[in-house]
UniProtKB/TrEMBL annotation, chain A:
PROSITE patterns referenced in this protein's UniProt entry, alphabetically: PROKAR_LIPOPROTEIN
PANTHER family given in the database record: ARABINOSE-BINDING PROTEIN-RELATED, DIACETYLCHITOBIOSE BINDING PROTEIN DASA
InterPro entries recorded: Bact_solute-bd_prot1, SBP
Protein name, UniProt field: ABC transporter
Pfam families per the UniProt record, alphabetical: SBP_bac_1 (PF01547)
TrEMBL record, chain B:
Intracellular or extracellular location(s): Cell membrane
Membrane topology type: Multi-pass membrane protein
CDD domains linked: TM_PBP2
GO cellular component entries: plasma membrane
GO biological process: transmembrane transport
InterPro entries: MetI-like, MetI-like_sf
Residue ranges occupied by any ABC transmembrane type-1 domain in the UniProt entry: 73-277
Keyword Zinc: no
Alphabetical keyword list: Cell membrane, Membrane, Transmembrane, Transmembrane helix, Transport
TM helices/strands, residue ranges: 12-33, 77-96, 108-128, 140-160, 181-203, 261-281
UniProt name for this protein: Sugar ABC transporter permease
From TrEMBL, chain C:
Domain ABC transmembrane type-1: 89-305
Pfam families: BPD_transp_1
Alphabetical keyword list: Membrane, Transmembrane, Transmembrane helix, Transport
InterPro entries: MetI-like, MetI-like_sf
UniProt subcellular location: Cell membrane; Membrane
Family: Belongs to the binding-protein-dependent transport system permease family.
CDD domains to which the protein is assigned, alphabetical: TM_PBP2
An annotated GO cellular component: plasma membrane
The protein's name: Sugar ABC transporter permease
Transmembrane segments: 25-53, 93-113, 134-159, 179-203, 224-248, 284-305
Annotated signal peptide: none
Primary site of residence: membrane
UniProt source species: Paenibacillus montaniterrae
Length: 586, 296, 318
């Protein structure tokens, strides 16, 4: 009996042994040097044996093999198939990190995950075996500062584990034709009202009231509103209310530290704690509160998602847009032909936040997995994505399909391209990979990250990479709404207008050779708890019955937030910003 | 017979209440369905309410054209059929074993099993175990963890205990082994609960995508639910990126959320097979048939 | 558990020898399955150790900071947080209690359904009432939004055109009766599906009992009361005990979808709160600590309910 009683223990032991046996991972193969080296030392990667690389992209909203023309392009050039692992899903980064193998190419991982991956030995050092020197010529050529920054910040001055995104140099805004934020109104209604000048943000309210009276019903006969908001993008605050800060040159991030609860001026050493009486966030809440009092705020704002709002824009139910990229939903060819559409209607006090060029690269880094069997081929692929040709083809497709160079060597969209860029369902010819345009389209297909900033000038053509900024595109016949706007403003693009009127605050890139200080876990916990309170009360305040309720909710919010450690979070964040970014101004 | 034909007050109430409740269950489904076959533009404006307008099938065409749809449907079918068979067999047999008082350490092992329902080790340990067992990119990952399910075993045990025990006792005295007793006597008796478990487990397998999401990167093993989830998620992950960047990521039209009509279409495509199979199982729920068969 | 007498009466010497062998044989047959349980449910519990570290995936524990019970106390560390917890637990208890109260509804539904004699009506009801179970909460919400939104919502339109209300109201953003509303949505979604188990239980009731009752001249109500209900009681009590153990695990999907700033203070159950604190996704130490605490509370409730069952009904469930 005694022996028999030990059964469970025995079984448990057997299990454990089994598990640990299977746990032993196979040893890594060392890489072979490429076989097919051409005459002048150039490698013809297309002659290499076919491989499938696992691309772990935190930014991808797709999983599975890269489809469409981009897949064909990479296959033809490198004989590589890309299998995309979607890292943006909650928990996916963690499991991948815990498993000790992040895949071959890692896209968009930054911040604490990135430093952890280095600490855990999950990333390949590019300086080893002269990998970068041999196969990364374009990266070294076009992004030397970004490489150096990475070496200083994360590699103890020797190793290089990755490179940032959207790298660029020069002054002025790094955005394309449009900024990221801005006040957009229904241009047709605005003109019908005699195009009054607008001084402050609050001046939009009476104007919108008039617009609402002028156009009380949408296309399908529903009530129109000045604003329709949504809450599903809220993190630690109401995102839409916070955009008010961006209208005034402030942002919740200083561009270097992982901020959130302080609003930092783009081009001055100034910050506002988000709940300060005078902060632009609180002004944003008051703004929407006033709008609601005037009947301008869609009462469903609280309960709807972005999808619902974008349908309302489509239907013409909303008269004000906070983002330029919301407007195409209404500015369809039919609507603009009828003279109806959104356009930028600036106010005098505005000072739009703009991210400047950052030679050190943004926080969505490109890196290579330590366990890859093909470091040289991953590096070659990455290098191609940093080359002018690679960017042009990776974004706009193989030359000759959607774009081409004209007789002067300037890029133009082809007839096909004009279609494809505005309609993702356009079929792609079989020789380019077949399927539809949007299968392959994206930022390097489904990898969804940038290398060099797209508004940088392509040295081969002398024009920016972004097709919307090509001379050929800027001078193409605009739609009637755009035309009317251009004639009135005397500029071609939104960005020009902001720059011309000196109404843009461009953030400066910062580098001191160190990585941003990691947020301690307890600060993080406090930040998220405080954020929860701010988010909840912000919406309640916007929909408060009257001023008195607005004020009492505000008091309640402050008390609760402070109780949860608001001041500590603010102090910690302000300290980081003061110690780093603000030193630029000294 | 006279009682049968009489329609009592109770019947009227009963039929009315059931009919009304059925309607409240059916109407939302119907509403969602007509929105998938109506003009998408009208549907997104909330103008389709009681009957379809401008009927078209392009939403369905679009979903069926997702690359890998056929293969994924097969994988889903495979895991559903095999997984359900395994779960039902294991639950039935184990549930029966745990009714045997004489089993060595019965109480302990039963509790050992039941309390796992309330354990949650978290994502990472689960992932590491699955990985160490070699269950990444492995079809078995869909089956093995599902075989033993405490909840179903409890259901079977309860059910067996409420059936007349004399039948199996008499068989055991005749020298029949446990397998024989289980197969010949218990199985026919507990068909209704096994059918219930089959339905639950089949639907669970059919709807599962979480394991694929974390354990599978090989597209040949993608399940239908996973590719549909991925398809829908292309829109929802936009919200996630926006949360992280405070709305400062630029969207283009291709990143706009999937229309609700597509979302709904996906639901229809997933639910219809279940609806087709379920009535087949209902024949196991006809009062009294099985017991009669055993006794007969 | 109802074995008693027959067992005792058959314990002859031969039988005894048979039993000595069979008790291990029975265990041996269960063994492969228990091994599976061990592998898939117990082995991962090794990960509970993360709760005591400032653990970051990818970095071995040996290089992580040991924090002791820090994560366990983090949620209760100051007055405001404690009052938040009180609020959240109140919601959890309210919604769970309502859920337990409404757990008799599937029983009633199953009885009503089995009393239906028209086979095709029965089939239709049985099939269609499971439909809500298959509609995801996201879609349930989009349907609810269609019904209740202010701007063109069905209900507001009807009430306005009837002249019952002057101004449309935002029902989804109401803070009134949140617990009840959530319970009702849950009942609607799960009733038909949950009833399947009871339908199976009713099917298993010995027909002879009904025949005997009929011979005694029992009415339909009496048959239901004396035969059907006792027949499904074991199943009901088992499920009841299991759901009591699940008292603090409401899940979060439904509440997450229906939550907004106005109803947040009443809708935020424990699971949603933990999610909303926003760090479960990245702070694994904290997430694990919460899991552990929840597991222990559940187990405590499970054995408590089991003990109660023994005291009240003289039977244990597990």
């Amino acid at each position: 009996m005694l022996i028999k009683k030990k059964w469970p223990t025995f079984i448990i032991l057997v299990c454990l042994v089994l598990i640990f046996v299977t746990a032993c991972s196979k040893s890594n193969q060392t890489s072979n040097n490429p076989a097919s080296i051409g005459e002048n030392g150039e490698v013809d990667w297309s002659q290499e044996p076919e491989v499938t690389l696992n691309v772990f992209s935190v930014l991808a909203n797709y999983a599975g093999p890269q489809p469409g023309w981009f897949a064909k392009l990479v296959k033809d050039k490198f004989n590589i198939n890309l299998n995309i692992i979607q890292g943006g899903v909650e928990g996916r980064v963690a499991t991948q990190m815990a498993s000790g193998d992040l895949g071959d190419l890692i896209v968009g991982m930054g911040g604490k995950d990135y430093t952890d991956a280095i600490k855990g030995g999950l990333l390949l050092d590019w300086t080893k075996d002269d990998l970068l020197e041999t196969y990364g010529k374009n990266i070294m050529n076009f992004a030397p500062e970004a490489l150096e920054a990475n070496r200083q910040q994360y590699g103890d001055g020797t190793a290089i584990y990755g490179i940032g995104h959207s790298i660029g140099s020069g002054d002025g805004p790094s955005e394309g034709a449009e900024m990221t934020f801005g006040p957009y109104l229904r241009w047709d209604l605005y003109q019908q009202l005699g195009s009054p000048t607008i001084k402050t943000l609050d001046d939009y309210l009476p104007l919108l009231k008039q617009m609402q009276e002028l156009q009380p019903k949408s296309d399908s006969g529903k009530k129109t509103y000045g604003f329709s908001l949504w809450s599903d993008w809220d993190g630690e605050f109401s995102t839409l209310a916070k955009v008010t800060a961006q209208f005034h040159g402030y942002s919740e991030s200083d561009g270097f530290n992982p901020g959130a609860l302080i609003l930092v001026k783009a081009d001055e050493p100034d910050y506002q704690p988000i709940l300060d009486d005078e902060s632009y966030y609180m002004k944003g809440l008051k703004f929407y509160f006033d709008a609601n009092q005037m009947g301008l705020l869609d009462p469903d704002s609280l309960t709807q998602t972005f999808g619902d709002v974008s349908n309302k824009f489509k239907d013409g139910q909303v008269l004000f847009a906070q983002f330029p990229w919301l407007t195409p939903a209404y500015n369809t060819p039919e609507n603009t032909a009828a003279g109806k559409g959104f356009a930028l209607v600036p106010f005098e006090e505005q000072n739009i936040y703009s991210s400047g060029f950052n030679p050190y690269g943004g926080n969505w880094l490109w890196s290579i997995g330590a366990k890859t069997k093909h470091p040289e081929r991953v590096m070659a692929l990455l290098d191609w994505m940093f080359s002018p040709d690679g960017i042009m083809e990776g974004f706009w497709g193989p030359k000759g399909l959607a774009w081409d160079l004209d007789d002067n060597g300037k890029p133009v969209l082809t007839e096909y391209g004009l279609q494809a860029m505005y309609n993702g369902d356009t079929p792609v010819p079989e020789e380019y990979g077949g399927g539809i345009w949007s299968d392959g389209a994206g930022n390097f297909g489904k990898l969804n990250n940038t290398t060099l900033a797209l508004s940088q000038i392509n040295p081969n053509t002398g024009e920016p990479y972004d097709y919307k900024l090509w001379t050929s595109e800027l001078t193409r016949d605009p739609d009637p709404v755009k035309k009317s706007w251009q004639d009135t403003m005397g500029v071609l693009t939104d960005k020009e207008l902001f720059v011309k009127n000196n109404q843009v605050a461009v953030s400066k890139s910062f580098f001191n050779g160190q990585a941003p200080v990691e947020e301690p876990s307890d600060i993080k916990l406090k930040r998220s708890q405080v954020g929860k309170v701010i988010k909840e009360y912000s919406w309640k305040m916007m929909f408060a019955k009257d001023e008195a309720e607005f004020d009492s909710l505000k008091q309640e919010m402050l008390e609760k937030a402070k109780g949860l450690g608001y001041d500590e979070v603010i102090n910690w964040q302000a300290e980081q910003t003061t110690n780093t970014v603000f030193t630029i101004y000294k | 017979m006279a009682i049968r034909s009489k329609i009592s007050f109770f019947d009227i109430i009963n039929y009315t209440v059931l009919a009304l409740f059925t309607l409240t269950c059916f109407f939302p489904f119907y509403y969602l369905f007509i929105n998938t076959i109506s003009n998408n533009d009208l549907s997104s404006r909330g103008l389709v309410m009681f009957y379809p307008i401008e009927i078209h099938l392009s939403n369905y065409a679009q979903v069926f054209q997702i690359p890998g749809f056929g293969q994924a449907a097969l994988v889903s079918l495979g895991r559903t059929v095999i997984g359900t068979l395994l779960t039902v067999a294991a639950s039935g047999f184990l549930g029966y074993l745990f009714t045997k008082q004489e089993m060595w350490g019965r109480r302990f092992w039963y509790r050992f099993l039941v309390i796992t329902m309330y354990f949650n080790a978290g994502l990472i340990p689960w992932y590491l175990i699955m990985r160490n067992l070699g269950l990444l990119n492995n079809f078995l990952a869909y089956l093995l963890p599902a075989i033993v399910s405490p909840f179903y075993i409890i259901l079977v045990k309860t059910y067996v205990e409420s059936t007349p025990i004399s039948l199996q006792e008499s068989a055991q005295i005749d020298g029949a082994g446990y397998f024989t007793v289980f197969w010949k006597i218990i199985m026919p008796l507990i068909t209704p609960i096994l059918a219930t478990i089959a339905i639950f487990s089949a639907v669970g397998q059919w709807n599962q995508f979480y394991d694929t999401l974390f354990l599978v990167t090989d597209q040949r093993l993608y399940t239908l639910q996973f590719i549909l989830w991925r398809y829908l998620n292309e829109a929802t992950s936009v919200a996630e990126i926006m949360r992280q960047t405070g709305g400062s990521t630029r969207l283009d039209l291709s990143m706009m959320p999937t229309a609700t009509s597509i979302r709904t279409t996906v639901t229809m495509i997933v639910v219809v097979p279940i609806l087709l199979v379920y009535p087949f199982f209902q024949r196991f729920f006809v009062k009294g048939i099985m017991i009669g068969a055993v006794k007969g | 558990m109802q074995v008693g007498p027959s067992q005792a009466s058959t314990s002859t010497p031969i039988r005894e020898r048979f039993q000595i062998k069979s008790k291990h044989w029975l265990f041996l047959m269960a063994c492969p399955f228990l091994v599976l349980v061990f592998i898939f449910s117990y082995l991962p519990l090794g990960g509970w150790i993360y709760a005591f570290y400032d653990y970051r995936p990818g970095i071995p524990l040996s290089k992580s900071d040991f924090v002791g019970f820090h994560w366990f106390t983090a949620m209760f560390s100051n007055e405001v947080q404690r009052s938040e917890m009180v609020r959240v637990l109140r919601n959890t208890f309210a919604i769970s209690s309502l859920g337990i109260l409404t757990s008799v509804l599937p029983v009633i539904f199953a009885i009503m359904l089995t009393e239906v004699r028209n086979a095709s009506f029965k089939k239709i009801v049985q099939t269609f009432t499971t439909l809500p179970n298959f509609i995801s909460w996201v879609l349930v919400y989009s349907f609810a939004f269609m019904l209740f939104s202010v701007d063109g919502g069905f209900l507001n339109n009807v009430l306005m055109s009837l002249g019952w209300i002057e101004e449309p109201t935002n029902i989804l953003a109401s803070n009134q009766h949140t617990w009840l509303a959530m319970t009702l949505w849950g009942v609607w979604k799960g009733l038909g599906w949950g009833a399947i188990m009871y339908i199976a239980a009713i099917t298993g009731i010995d027909q002879e009992l009904y025949e005997a009752a009929k011979v005694d001249g029992a009415s339909r109500f009496r048959q239901i009361w004396h035969v059907t209900i006792p027949g499904i009681m074991p199943t009901f009590f088992v499920l009841l005990v299991l759901s009591i153990a699940n008292f603090i695990n409401n899940g979060m999907e439904q509440y997450f979808i229906f939550a907004n700033a106005m109803n947040m203070s009443n809708i935020e159950v424990l699971d949603l709160y933990v999610y909303n604190v926003g760090i479960t996704g990245s702070n694994f130490g904290f997430a694990t600590a919460v899991s552990i605490m929840k597991s222990f509370v559940s187990l405590f409730l499970l054995f408590l309910a089991n003990g109660l069952s023994k005291a009240v009904r003289g039977e244990t469930i597990i």
